[in-house]
Prior knowledge:
The protein is an alpha/beta fold. 44% of the residues lie in helices and 22% in strands.
Amino acid sequence: xxxxxxxxxxxxxxxxxxxxxxxxxxxxxxxxxxxxxxxxxxxxxxxxxxxxxxxxxxxxxxxxxxxxxxxxxxxxxxxxxxxxxxxxxxxxxxxxxxxxxxxxxxxxxxxxxxxxxxxxxxxxxxxxxxxxxxxxxxxxxxxxxxxxxxxxxxxxxxxxxxxxxxxxxxxxxxxxxxxxxxxxxxxxxxxxxxxxxxxxxxxxxxxxxxxxxxxxxxxxxxxxxxxxxxxxxxxxxxxxxxxxxxxxxxxxxxxxxxxxxxxxxxxxxxxxxxxxxxxxxxxxxxxxxxxxxxxxxxxxxxxxxxxxxxxxxxxxxxxxxxxxxxxxxxxxxxxxxxxxxxxxxxxxxxxxxxxxxxxxxxxxxxxxxxxxxxxxxxxxxxxxxxxxxxxxxxxxxxxxxxxxxxxxxxxxxxxxxxxxxxxxxxxxxxxxxxxxxxxxxxxxxxxxxxxxxxxxxxxxxxxxxxxxxxxxxxxxxxxxxxxxxxxxxxxxxxxxxxxxxxxxxxxxxxxxxxxxxxxxxxxxxxxxxxxxxxxxxxxxxxxxxxxxxxxxxxxxxxxxxxxxxxxxxxxxxxxxxxxxxxxxxxxxxxxxxxxxxxxxxxxxxxxxxxxxxxxxxxx
Length: 619
């Protein structure tokens, strides 16, 4: 028996202009649902959420809601009121007589989201305002909770806390997010907005790629079959109509209608499956291996008479072509690090050096480089004209915008008319036209749809310059960086080789027990493949003398390689090693990789020879 129905929409029509946003829209939301709402930027996600809340009127169709159902909505844009405290904002929609019941929840949620409930809303940063909005949505405990990009401006600890909270939430959840890992962890159903239609998957976002690919492949087969059918009809029509009887005239009209409909559907399919194509970025010419260096850098700020340490004798070398991911709580020092690198701030102590010829391309999450009054064309071609220089080649601005999934017909639209995700896409188009030798991306994934995220990952994989990414998107970091700088507060910065998963493994101590692995391997090596009695009964056949000698020598080689790997791993585990000796750190990392490769080769060879020995014995 399905869970109780809370809300239902049938045969809904919504139009803002001549072209409807939705036609024949239908969906049901049941009690306890965990729904991921996905779709390209501009597909209508915000409109659908407004339909659920009742803020969006239907031009036709029916919306039904179970009486007494409460709906909460975390909007992307929150306008603080003058003089209102965080506590007052969170309790704004809760009745006075019920506030005592909810007070304890405010403390729990505010502490987890690092909010000062006494602070004034107008004094908060944009990220803190978003956190206050999330706290309010969670404290209200509505029957249906709508979350629009809830992980924006949250650090990783807060995101993980939110996942746990939502997984124990008793109400129904519908969530829009660019964070694939977050959606995979909290949802059990998917609403996919695709070309004005809503498609529903009974499984969570974890299985979305496989499910959506299956639907698109099915659609492709249907289009091919329809195309063959239309071609047969066209062939009949091309032979002419001898007798102008009504039946044949009607058939000709049907052929034309079928052909036009097929053409429109094929075009829609191509748009739906199109990926942003981007030519490999030109090689970055560089002569120096080191592009930037922090040496014993100290930086702190005063806040209400209290000293806040951001960096404390921090040292690091950034080498040409490195791919660094930066993460940490708000206020832990990520932005300060970038400003020091960009020479917008000076250190209190120590020195920051960068190559004289080093140039930066900077993606600012606040989009300060975008003028809301300018058109898309003016933004990309500030000097006028219809063409933009893309890595030395002139491209028409309409064609270039099309590469980034913009309708060329919107070239004269104002930036202010774009959604958050479209603004980010425009920023990426502007920066990636001519990326400099060092590319800095500050929370680039916020508000992006999945297709644009895939595009960005593909472009960054081809970028040969130095890449620095500030992000809390775990999957994105794993896909794009090879080193993590984790700002953990109080001047502590953890340097970890690898992506987010490697950092998490190091942080939580979830690494496999190397010592136990070594012991298990030794036992496996020493253990005979078959009991001695059984072997004695079989005809004795031997490996060649050379192979026997190689087999006997391998356990010693394996043990020696294991000792070397363990020693090098322990050496790299020293958090101060890099700051003391950056060159030694890189040499040790390379040596560890070589030893691990050697160990794997020895183990593989030992297994091969053991299997050969068993085969000879069995013969």
